[in-house]
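Possible regression after last week's pipeline update?

I re-ran a chain I had predicted before the update to compare outputs. Posting the input and the new output here so someone can diff against the archived version. Not blocking, just want to make sure nothing changed silently.
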Amino acid sequence: MIVLFSLYVNAHSGSIHGKSLSKAPTSNTFSYTTGWGYNFFATGQASSRAWSSAKVHITGMTTTHTISLEFTYP
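New output (post-update):
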């Protein structure tokens, strides 16, 4: 069996706008809205982004692994 735990979801509107979101989902299915409205275009490290991570454990194995996913725009 594969078990996910220590789930985290983060997002920010870009360094210019200064808005952020940080959540710790309690299930494997989650959906969040930011409520920020339209976000003006910015590039590079100033651009908006969202990322998520979770630790994974597989039954019968001794170690865990952290998986991460990041979305950046553009």
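Follow-up from reviewer: compared with the archived run. The mean pLDDT is 89. Marking as no regression found.
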